[in-house]
Specification:
Elements (H helix, E strand, L loop, with lengths): L8 H6 L6 H27 L3 H22 L4 H24 L5 H22 L8 H6 L11 E3 L2 E4 L1 H19 L1 H9 L1 H6 L4 H42 L3 H26 L3 H19 L5 H18 L1 H9 L1
Antiparallel strand pairs: 1-2
């Protein structure tokens, strides 16, 4: 046995786009839709220093889904979404309650809320495992490899695709619409809530609307890719884009590019290592972040070190001591 499987270029780079396009291409498309939806809202979470709130909500949907099934006895999308959204709002309310009415700061409140609710979800699954069609592997890694096997939705003579894919397409379209409609309000309240209040923008309404948007994206993504990928794609695309530009609109564009690169390279990595597509996508996304961190023209470690070295050399060449010594020489 070897730690890394034997590399076969044809199997890794050619077959996913030819003989296995129906499965691997669909998984890459689903991953891109999740990355784009999560990344767009993740930019505003990063600006508000609320990145870990997405982490908390992505964990807390588990008890909501389990309780919704136990109460309604149905695995229909309506009951699952309702349970997950209620759990997400409960998480947000619990975080606000702890941070406002105790000496604990928001990061500690987030840790308490999401770990407690996630543990409750795990206990519910363990106790009612024969009634709830969920397991821990599904929670962490999602059901991404199973999506191509689901019966596609048909509209007349058109084959539209499996239901999770269609839900993610709708979520991305809604996210883009919300972004266009409330871009100014989101931007101002993220950078300067005081200025937003002076301009007549209802900061509280925008904040709770952002949490509702986040809940919608997390709920739609959780079923397909699991908690690991949702957490990563809420943070990695926006963090990578912030290394490349300071302007918001280009940052949103770079977020979409990162989602596409992570989906494609993650798909190839999962084929090469024969591992979870969700985990491979996270690793690929982290790799692209490292590339931006190292080589970004403005924020990259290597260009900054080169500029610092060049600046020190130029300052020494311009120093009076060197000028006087050159004249004497």
């Amino acid at each position: 046995m070897t730690l890394i499987p034997e590399f076969q270029a044809h199997r890794v780079f050619v077959e996913p786009w030819t003989t296995e396009l129906g499965s691997h291409g669909l998984m890459a498309l689903v991953t891109f839709l999740v990355g784009a939806s999560c990344g767009l809202i993740g930019n505003f979470l990063i600006l508000r220093r609320m990145a870990l709130v997405g982490d908390a909500i992505s964990h807390s949907v588990l008890p909501g889904i389990a309780l919704a099934f136990l109460i309604t006895g149905s695995r229909g999308i309506g009951a699952m979404v309702l349970g997950a959204v209620v759990a997400a709002w409960l998480t947000h309310g619990l975080i606000e309650l702890i941070s406002r009415h105790s000496r604990l700061k928001q990061d500690a409140a987030i840790g308490i809320a999401f770990s407690t609710l996630f543990a409750i979800g795990v206990v519910l699954i363990a106790v009612f495992a024969d009634k709830v069609d969920l397991d821990q592997d599904c929670v962490l890694n999602g059901e991404l490899p199973m999506i191509p096997l689901e019966p596609p939705v048909r509209l007349g003579g058109w084959v539209l695709g499996p239901p999770p894919l269609l839900r993610l397409v709708v979520v991305l379209i809604v996210s883009l619409g919300l972004l266009v409609m409330f871009y100014k309000e989101l931007l101002i309240t993220s950078f300067d809530p005081g200025l937003a209040s002076c301009l007549g923008i209802r900061v509280g309404v925008i904040h709770h609307g952002l949490m509702l948007w986040l809940s919608m994206v997390v709920v739609a993504s959780f079923e397909a890719v699991g908690a690991i990928l949702v957490i990563a794609l809420l943070i990695l695309p926006g963090a990578t884009a912030s290394m490349l530009t300071d302007r918001m609109i280009p940052r949103l564009a770079w977020t979409t590019v990162h989602a596409a690169l992570s989906a494609i390279s993650g798909m190839h990595l999962s084929v090469a290592l024969d591992c979870s597509p969700a985990g491979a996508t996270v690793v690929a996304g982290a790799g692209w972040f490292c590339v931006a961190w190292l080589f970004s023209p403005t924020e990259g470690l290597i260009p900054r070190r080169l500029r610092l070295h060049t600046g020190s050399v130029d300052s020494r060449l311009r120093s009076p001591e060197l000028s006087d010594s050159s004249e004497i020489a």
